[in-house]
Amino acid sequence: MEKKAIAASEGIAIAxxxxxESPTLDIVKETxxxxxxxxxxxxxxxxxSKAEILDIRDHTAKTIDEESAAIFDAHLxxxxxxxxxxxxxxxxxxxxxxxxxxxxxxxKKYVTIFESMEDNKYMQERAADVKDVAxxxxxxxxxxxxxxxxxxxxxxxxVAHDLTPSDTAQLNKQxxxxxxxxxxxxxxxxxxxxxxxEIPAIVGAKSILNAVNQDDTxxxxxxxxxxxxxxxxxxxxxxxxxxxxxxxxxxxxxALKNMKTITKDNHQVExxxxxxxxxxxxxxxxxxxxxxxxxxxxFLYMNAQSMPDENTQYxxxxxxxxxxxxxxxxxxxxxxxxxxxxxxxxxEPEMNPFLGKRALRLCxxxxxxxxTQLRALLRASAYGDLHIMFPMIATVEELLEAKEVLSICAKxxxxxxxxxxxxxxxxxxxxxxxxxxxxxxxxxxxxxSVGTNDLIQYTFAADRMNxxxxxxxxxxxxxxxxxxxxxIDASHEAGIWTGMCGEMAQxxxxxxxxxxxxxxxxxxxxxxxxxxxxxxxxxxxxxxxxLALEVLTYDNSAAVLQRLKxxxxxx
Amino acid sequence: MTKRLFKVIDEAGxxxxxxxxxxxxxxxxxxxxxxxYKDKTFTLKSIMxxxxxxxxxxxxxxxxxxxxxxxxxxxxxxxxxxxxKIIDA
Lengths: 571, 89
What we know:
The complex is a heterodimer.
Chain A: E1 2-4, E2 6-9, E3 12-20, H1 35-63, H2 66-79, H3 82-95, H4 99-116, H5 121-141, E4 156-160, H6 165-169, E5 176-181, H7 189-197, E6 201-203, H8 208-211, E7 217-221, E8 226-229, H9 233-254, E9 261-262, E10 268-275, H10 281-286, E11 291-296, H11 298-302, H12 310-323, E12 328-332, H13 360-365, H14 367-380, E13 385-390, H15 396-415, E14 423-429, H16 432-436, H17 438-442, E15 447-450, H18 452-460, H19 478-493, E16 497-500, H20 511-517, E17 521-524, H21 529-537, H22 541-551, H23 557-564
Parallel strand pairs in A: 3-4, 4-5, 5-6, 10-11, 10-17, 11-12, 12-13, 13-14, 14-15, 15-16, 16-17
Antiparallel strand pairs in A: 1-8, 2-6, 3-7, 7-8, 9-10
Chain B: E1 2-7, H1 16-27, E2 34-37, E3 40-43, H2 47-52, E4 60-65, H3 70-83
Antiparallel strand pairs in B: 1-4, 2-3, 2-4
Helix pairs in contact in B: 1-3
């Protein structure tokens, strides 16, 4: 039986099923005579839970790291929280109810409060922490033992309804080859931990506990979310091979982390990362990015309740610049409008928002917003290799106007004795007009970065949100490729570089074409970097150039894609 | 009671880690340290209470300490907030 659920952590596991089931904790609403006696019973359950949590904490620090262990400090704090104790005693005294019942009520109250803070994933995790602690305490109180992941001493796939943070922290990678749970999503705690531990995992597999028996054989593909219970010989063989390939690829790619991206015939390009916040930096560094090719500042605005002030922005930009020492960081100025809005900024309704007042157009008419961001960027420039990038430029005049505002801000800051470092200025190439005036634009800036999603949408006049015209999203169409050629050539003639931060840069099949067209920088999601590096390092630049020149003369996407299948660009 | 006003600059608000350290620091003193938020007052020694307030970016709150040691304790608490970039130095 082959089924699918949510892929939570990459990799393949083949092992026997270990059903990880927690005892049911029946907390009944019972009245008591002796409040103190009932309280003591809970207090001793809390005390023995404390010893267990301390053990888990130490184990986690040893097997994973201190940072992961820190969540158990939070568990201890919850365990010893004076307010929980006060509220429990209040219920006990007022209503003469048992301590276990009162504890259940109080902890559930906080779980509900935290879970209702939907926009905040920290709080969702804290809700899981409170549940985890309460479960441990109540199990102790009832004299029931919780299943202990550390007791697993043979190769298994753990099957559970849900795994608490303390369960996941105690999974021993040596024996637990993977896990699958009935509830949870890609960002739930267990999924995050699985990726930290690098074990394959699937979540959201409804009723899986009922579907399996202890010791059934199971295959779990954490990359696709596919799982098979009691596979046949053919499936077994297929996934055994896939498992070997995956492990080999991982080792191979890890070796490329600190390497440069150079073709067989010595042509070097740069692989950079796209990020949305400083929280993405860890994966940027882990995946060997050679810089940040696009930092989308929208999230800084979209996650706030009001316009983020200069200092808040300055701190955020500074953090990223400091996190990427000696490496280029391209920060794009605010790109809202189109399909992105801010709750606290009223915008006139527009018939065609994608063709309306978005990004730079909006910033140039909301000077206060624009200047706040530019001042924050200029102040942060002292902390790294800052590249400021303007989105949605259509004309030379717009670029000059934006640069004028930037120099006014710089002047003001100098008058205020604020330090400003060196910085570069560039633009997004995403409106077709810019392709044909690229040589003029190049005189006024230091780099270009192609935003393919918008460039394609505007070139084909096809709304990328509208499924009925989605067939017109054609990154491999010769029209797009010829535009790229014009832009890249114009930039090189002017002595500046061209990058790409749109989705096309991480399409594996597009790499030889973009390389052949002369693209200098490829910016993509961090997880695509190593695979792209591996591929480019095997290519021959001259052959890729010949390929690119050839397909520029074609008249449709299918022919280009067909031609790429020849794979004659490797050395 | 000595009081001091703070404004949150961190985009994630007064989130779990610093909140936890703030409670830890507050709990190290015997004084009944209070937090004043949205016209209400709560103990600063409970992580449950502090987190359920959901203090977000740009929010303002006051901390109040009774007794003679107010300024010194507030300095210690302020240091936790500055170290974790919850407020401006």
